[in-house]
Design goal:
With 389 residues, this protein is α+β, with helices and mostly antiparallel strands. It is built from 12 helices and 17 strands. It has one domain: Chorismate synthase, AroC fold, CATH 3.60.150.10.
């Protein structure tokens, strides 16, 4: 396995006290702002079709260690996001055991416990894996709520990369059957238009059609999935490696995006369209001008042989419809082993815009790790000197 320079662990449950992350490998001297992280957290919470939970949580990060006077010290960084909904769940999600359960407390716990596995969720497999009788224990950690703190970690990664002119963004290209056919001519315009859209789509007319599709699904008690794209530019050539399979950058990026809850497919560059493009048109020809290498196309998505090739890295993800839906799905009560209707927990109708922000964060984390591993150094000054040389 490749040694990771920028790595992190997270903890926390959907309705627990808080979400935490500990990040290791951030060099000293990097200016880190909580306000910048909070802006990314707000982007994750926005999006047409989000559920009532987003009206409860106003995610704010607290940097608890590893930063002094606004700059990183080289020590591990601890981030914390409090769950505002926790006071409503503190009896149900108590860490401490109860010596005596009152009737009122038993009723509270039973109301939030369930044994009817939801199709499309981690409920069934998770209960078998960890020998859990109450599927609440699976739901709480498998919930996409944990991606909030991952976005915070990704924001730290983006603040590191920004020091070297590396930046990226995400946008939505499909919700349900509504696809984005018109692309703005530049990445700058694409980013600006996506950020103004309720569904993070860079075309106003397509955005309106996507919102209507979400409204129709909500009216029918259903949910919608879609596709998003993440683009990062100004990356140095040679991040990643062809020497071992687990060091290939496209493989690492694909795993990072694929493991986001709900994502079922990942493409890089031309992706699945590569199957129908002849080789003479698929591969990005190489040209030189004034001793500088350039390309006229980017079907490779900025990655060749598992390494960055100087072009923008382009990744697409496909998110399935959220499996928590008002329409009753057939399942089995794992306690009685009798047919039942699936448990319903408050949920979004569509979370593709939020998923795109999470994917942007996950990609930034991998790129920061690869960048720091390749350039090397324990402080910003040292890394900058290595980079410039």
């Amino acid at each position: 396995m490749t040694m990771k320079r920028f790595r992190f662990l997270t903890s926390g449950e959907s309705h627990g006290k808080c979400l935490n992350a500990i990040i290791e490998g951030v060099p000293s001297g990097i200016r880190l702002k909580a306000d910048v992280i909070n802006k990314d957290l707000a982007r994750r919470q926005l999006g047409y079709g989000r559920g009532s939970r987003m009206q409860i949580e106003m995610d704010k990060v607290e940097i608890k260690s590893g930063v002094r006077f606004g700059k990183t010290t080289g020590a591990p960084i601890c981030l914390e996001i409090k769950n505002n909904d926790y006071p409503n769940w503190q009896d149900i999600m108590s860490v401490e055991g109860y010596e005596y359960l009152t009737e009122e407390l038993i009723k509270k716990i039973e109301e939030k416990s369930f044994t009817t596995a939801r199709p499309g969720h981690a409920d069934y497999a998770g209960s078998i894996k960890f020998n859990l009788d109450d599927l609440r224990d699976v739901l709480e950690r498998s919930s996409a709520r944990k991606t909030a703190v991952e976005v915070a970690v990704g924001s730290v990664a983006k603040q590191i990369l920004k020091n070297f002119g590396i930046a990226g963004f995400s946008h939505v290209i499909q919700i349900g059957k509504v696809r984005l056919d018109f692309y703005p001519k530049t990445y700058t315009l694409l980013r600006e238009m996506a950020e103004k859209s309720d569904v993070r789509c860079a075309d106003e007319l397509t955005s309106d059609r996507m919102c209507q599709a979400i409204d129709d699904a909500a009216q029918a008690g259903d949910t919608l999935g879609g596709k998003f794209e993440v683009i990062f530019g100004n990356l140095p050539v040679g991040l990643g490696s062809y020497t071992h399979w687990d060091m290939a950058l496209d493989g690492r990026l694909a795993q990072a995006v694929m493991s986001i809850p709900g994502v079922k497919a990942v493409e890089i560059g031309a992706g699945v369209d590569s199957a129908s493009i002849p080789g003479s048109k698929m591969h990005d020809e190489i040209y030189v001008k004034n001793n500088e290498i350039y390309r006229k196309s980017n079907n490779a998505g900025g990655i060749e042989g598992g390494m960055t090739n100087g072009e923008s890295v382009v990744i697409r993800g496909t998110m399935k419809p959220i499996p928590t839906i008002r329409k009753c799905l057939s399942t089995v009560d794992l306690k009685t082993m009798q047919p039942a209707d699936a448990h319903f927990e408050r949920s979004d109708v569509c979370a593709v815009p939020a998923c795109s922000v999470v994917a942007e964060a996950r990609v930034a984390i991998i790129l920061a790790d690869e960048f720091l591993t390749k350039i090397g150094g324990d402080s910003f000054a040292e890394i900058k000197a290595h980079y410039e040389s």
